[in-house]
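Write out structure tokens for Aminopeptidase N.
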Amino acid sequence: MFRRQGLRATVAACSATAFLAAPAFAGTGTPGAPGAGDPYFPHYGNGGYDVSHYDIQLRYQPQDDHLTGTTTIVAKPTQDLSAFNLDFALKVKSVRVNGQPAEFHHEGSELTVTPPQTLPKGGLATFVVDYDDVPSTVEVDGIKPWIRTSDGALAVGEPEIAAWWFPSNDHPRDKATYDIAVTVPDGNQVLSNGVNTRTSSMNGWTTWKWRDTKPTASYLAFMAVGEYEVSNKTGAFGKPFVSAYSRGLGDLEGAAKASVERTPEVLDFLSGLFGEYPFEAEGGVVSSEGMNFALENQTRPTYSHKFFKDGANTSVVVHENAHQWFGDSVSVDTWRDIWLNEGFASYAEWLWSEKQGTGTAQQLFDHYYAQYPADDPFWQIKPGEPGAKDVFSDAVYDRGAMALQALRNVIGDRALQDVVRSWVQQKQYSNGTIEEFIKLAEQRSGKQLDDFFKVWLFTSGKPPVGPQYGVPETATTHAAAVPKAVPELDRTHALLHEQH
């Protein structure tokens, strides 16, 4: 479902004249790999170079969904590079490498580029791609993540979206900083990551410039274009707080604002659990159409209006902002490590419920443990090894959260908080694996946890009752009073799972 079509890069032979004119290393390199080697999605990302910055300049016409763009990629080859791939699905007009025209071949979402000269390992390289297309018409392997709305578009998705609006090395391992400038007809607003550095108008068009200064995975970069009510305030920790609400929300506007405007309060709560907020800005965007999900875009999550149909919903705000630590600052090393994102974000909702007095984390654990009988398919998916088809299954979210409450029961509150804070501090702005987290948990708690994690993350079946697995006797039956947080949690997770 999520596989990309990979191509073997073809290297053109250099003529004798070109060889003499080029540096001594020209022609001696090898092509970069067309994939990052992810065990679930082997053709995601690329090899042979590391990106440090993206400069994305777009012009977008909502009336016909026409997008033109120029993206400049600043990168460092990690080998002597004779050819390389970019992940990109739109029509390409030209490619330049270090200022010179380069040959390219495009198939599906693989753009294979052959520079005129081999790029030396460790050097500075720039790739400039000019493109022009209608993103909503582009489909690759059955995937069409671009969301066109009646007043604009949403470039929001996981794990696929970047290739539908800018060329990239599209894997969480290769994080970079961003400058994003989008020009749209007057009367439209553009939301993106980080800080709005400038907004200017000329000849009926307005350009919105956004800057994201911390390393960001490509799928977490986003763009929302349309008619929005945009609010600029100072939020938690003195950071800029930018929220935006689609003007088409109607009766849901109040509930959406009552939820997302609590983001600074939520971040203050989460920083008490996880440590210092890792980014330069905060906020949220609520769409009125096109989305059935929410996504933790770095610094500014995006929410579907559907989360607020039954009133205010702070659970989803907690979930997406917990991802700012788990998923955004500390990103997965491969998509197989997704429990490190979704298990922790879901557990943060439980801790918020505990703080709000709508059900303790243990009461929620007991409820979900009793809700699913031993033969339920829920217990057959392993959160630590869900498989490519079940990366975003209920078990990764809910059984993943249960595993953390069980760990809390085994090692204690103080030890768990020490593990979590140490993890986000040591891995800040980088990537992590489940195995690395387990090793840290054992080191910081002083306990041998192999059997515990094997049962909770890597074994099909319902974990048995017992102190070694963190499952108390109270979990064997439903509590007499169902925690008040359950209906909101269930609605939130039902929508989150629709995303995939």
